[in-house]
Amino acid sequence: MKNIQSIKVLGMGCKTCHTQYENVKKAISNLNLDIKVEYITDIEKVMEYGVMSMPGIVINEEVVSTGKLLKPKDIIKLMEK
Question: Residue 7 in contact with residue 58, Cβ under 8 Å?
Fold first, then answer.
């Protein structure tokens, strides 16, 4: 597993985006990691990442997923890349 400094969920505050945020927190919990997850709903901050479809996941300032609601196991796979 790579050294993960930060994880951000980008969204508009909708149910799907909030579920993505909760799934990211579950994935981190399943791995017994102590990483703070930031939930960003400010559209200007979201646009800084160039994300056009929500929800988005950013790991260590790199966009790794957009427009898909991922299950915790799929998020773990992204974290392992």
Answer: yes
Question: Which candidate, 33, 31, 34, 35, places its Cα nearest to that of 57?
Answer: 35
Cα 33 to Cα 35: distance, rounded to the nearest angstrom: 6
Query: What is the model's pTM?
Result: 0.94
Rg (CA), the chain: 11
Single-letter amino acid, residue 7: I
Are residues 38 and 44 in contact, defined by beta-carbon separation less than 8 angstroms? Answer: no
In angstroms, rounded to a whole number, what is the distance separating the alpha carbons of residues 81 and 66?
16
Q: Which CATH superfamily is domain 7-80 in?
A: Glutaredoxin (3.40.30.10)
Note whether 76 and 31 are within 8 A (CB): yes
Give the tens place of pLDDT for each residue, 28-75: 999 999 999 999 999 999 999 999 999 999 999 999 999 999 999 999
